[in-house]
Amino acid sequence: MLEEIMRLRTDLKRGVFRFDDVQNAPLQKIVDYCVETGTKLSLVLEVLEKQVVDLMEIEEQKVKALATPIITLKILRVLPLISVFCGFIFGSDIIKTYLSIPGFCCIALGVTLYFIGQSVTKKYLDQYKTALDFDFEDDPVIILSVIKSSVLSGLSVVGCLRALGVEGSEQLEPGVPLAATSVPEYLSCLQETFYEGVSPVGMIDAKVYQLKFNRSSLAKRLGEELGVKLVIPISSCYLPSFILIGVVPVIIGMV
Questions:
Q1: What is the DSSP string of 177-242?
Q2: Summary mean pLDDT of the chain
């Protein structure tokens, strides 16, 4: 996305921009919107580039928060194999032990716990990832940034919302409070604009800052919570699995 925005900005500066040369569907929608409303595309792309960079930094925070738990899990996943290998080194007849009733019971229970741990871990990781997913087309930060650019280009806020196809924008009429419409909650920052004629630029900037700050804080908090939650599969599934698959059979084989 960022590379495409930078390419379009470069093409505009060089005077070689073509409206049919946009390779990203959500970005094409914004380009079409600029053509339809007369909004300056260069201004929109400039604002979008900054916002996308900020949102990508938040994505990097999410990746960093996941790094340590994922490395820990990878190590725990190979520990049973390492322990089996160590059993061979120490002279334990590990294969014979696995074929015995006690050994088979150990490995069956250990494998069961291992896959339970995998399932629980995947559930926690998926919850964390989806909680911070970035959808360019419907992201409040992107929509508010486009609105700001449009207002600076002379377009009305209501006209901008309707051109963007924002939910509930058709309900915006003089005298109708925002709370009585189905517009998204993040547009509440435009309340004074509709009914008091106040410029929305400052309020949009404040709302965008708040949204990004909240998202960054959420990424950190969820990352910390994820580390705590992963203690459950590690302590109750992976470590017992390691002991049952790798340690107990080795001890039995050496007795």
A1: -GGGS---GGGGGGHHHHHH---SHHHHHHHHHHHHHHHHHHHHHHHHHHHHHTHHHIIIIIHHHH
A2: 75
